[in-house]
């Protein structure tokens, strides 16, 4: 079992004992998503910490998008609940890079690979994503790569 999944399970048990309903329900949802990812495919398998982190990132993004949608629809109470769930999940995610740090990492990755022009967008994105290593959302990375390639 991955250490991140162990930590989620232990924290859920602690939240249950403390009668923290928000944390309990959020961590149950996250563990259910991890369980679903484990059984996806042809055979059940244990997820690595990186794979569990990817599932948590996806779930946190869903919460942010849902909070925005609820806020736009005028449902402030539901938006606040989704935001709170997102904050619980953010405790388990790596710190996001600042714009300056992201710019520096992407420019270093592009310089190392010698990427220029639109035709090399795919390989440039692969190198940039490897350099960032989950510390920024893909959309932010793609926007920065496009900006630096002059697209």
From TrEMBL:
<dbReference type="GO" id="GO:0016740">
    <property type="term" value="F:transferase activity"/>
</dbReference>
<dbReference type="InterPro" id="IPR042184">
    <property type="entry name" value="YqeY/Aim41_N"/>
</dbReference>
<dbReference type="GO" id="GO:0016884">
    <property type="term" value="F:carbon-nitrogen ligase activity, with glutamine as amido-N-donor"/>
</dbReference>
<keyword id="KW-0808">Transferase</keyword>
<protein>
    <submittedName>
        <fullName>Glutamyl-tRNA amidotransferase</fullName>
    </submittedName>
</protein>
<dbReference type="Pfam" id="PF09424">
    <property type="entry name" value="YqeY"/>
</dbReference>
<dbReference type="InterPro" id="IPR019004">
    <property type="entry name" value="YqeY/Aim41"/>
</dbReference>
<dbReference type="InterPro" id="IPR023168">
    <property type="entry name" value="GatB_Yqey_C_2"/>
</dbReference>
<dbReference type="InterPro" id="IPR003789">
    <property type="entry name" value="Asn/Gln_tRNA_amidoTrase-B-like"/>
</dbReference>
